[in-house]
Design a protein that fits this description.
Layout (H helix, E strand, L loop, with lengths): L3 H4 L9 H15 L2 H9 L6 H23 L5 E3 L3 H9 L12 H20 L2 H8 L2 H22 L3 E4 L3 E4 L5 H18 L5 H15 L24 H4 L5 H27 L11 H18 L4 E3 L3 H6 L5 H13 L4 H7 L3 E7 L8 E7 L4 H10 L12 H17 L2 H18 L8 H18 L1
Antiparallel strand pairs: 1-4, 2-3, 5-6
Helix pairs in contact: 2-15, 3-4, 4-13, 4-15, 6-12, 6-13, 8-12, 8-17, 8-18, 8-19, 9-10, 9-17, 18-19, 19-20
Amino acid sequence: MKSIAEYFEIENNNTTIGREALAGLTTFLTMSYIIFVQPAMLGTTGMDRGAVMVATCVASAIATLMMGLWARYPIALAPAMGHNAFFAFVVCAPAVAGGFGYTWQQGLAAVMVSGAAFVALSFFGMREALIKAVPECMKYGIAAGIGLLIAVIGLQYGGLIMMSSPTLVKIGDLSSAPALLTLLGLAVTGVLLVRHVTGAILIGMLVTTAAALLFGTIEYHGVFSSPPAIAPTAFQLDFTGLFQHSGVIGIIFIFFFLDLFDTIGTLIGVSAQAGFLRKDGSLPRARQALLSDAAGTCIGAALGTSTVTSYIESSAGIAAGGRTGLCNVVTAALFLLALFFAPFMEMVASAVTVDYTVFFSPAYPSVPHSMSHYPVLAPVLLVVGAYMMSGIKNISWDDMSEALPAYLAMIVMPLSFSITEGIAFGFISYTILKLARGRAAKVNWIMYAVSILFVIRYVWLGM
């Protein structure tokens, strides 16, 4: 029987068990906000918030463990941001509020169907083939785009930028508590990184948390609590009601489409950062990774939460030195432990609400606006964003048929707040420019097919 070090090939991956454990803790702390955000969002549909929290923790733990033990990658999984908003505020919102009027039970059934379709595609290697079909310039462009998206989220979480109608965004109130805490955490983390201190990111998070507690920015909520019951949401899927809706195929397709490209984008981006991709651009054990992701969606739907997918916050653990699936084993265990440490996790991922006055137009020169910030998480996201930009040096910037698509993927992701939209712009422009340059034969047929699907999607959304 293999030891832990042998199974995860610790020595071959130039890491240690201690480093993997620290990386797993870092990943968990960086993405732990979902434990509290998910119940708040899905609770608007009438779902029991306590049950959603348990479903989120358990589904995330199972999917993350599958990825760690089977695919042996340090890429954690949890319910996807954006997907949960689509579930709560579009699919399950009343028709009078612009939604489709599905019950949450029907919404979970739609997520389950899309997840089952993912399992089928992953089992037959279709998603693995798609990863191989993506050209090198797009792989690096996607990774950098995700890094910029993470950085924008970090700037927003930290109160370093805020909305402004004339310019979309502007510098935030640097004298506010979230901004000062973010700058403190960023400074501490940056200094530790350049000094090559082990656990720099985690230490920076702990220092920021301590400072926030000291100055009363976040509140101490205690440490332990009993887990809520999962029964109110577990196995409550309504397939019969789902297929009574005339537009059900479209809803399932959107869930499927979003998950497909968010997953592929994240896997490519995180793998490029960690150096997992082979020279030919393929990802070893891609089928196991994709099946773990697809199974996570089905498990999550069954337990009572929206689409589970690979998390870009895994980059934080990779930046902290994680290189094997052992990192995921630690993260999965912490998701289960979080069921009993909910008050402590709520403190680390606490939102700090700040009231601003936002300028929209001369007619409405001052509009009050509230913004939630996460000063403990913000410095981590900013540092991770920097790590993920490193691959752009490998893009052929003197070849515009390579550079422009990569650039569009990079810039559209943060400005649209969507990995999928960035990939769409990159794919479509890549195929068009290669055709224009007379290199159509060098483009994989899958790129053409996916680009056409993206165009059809935009036409359909515009109708």
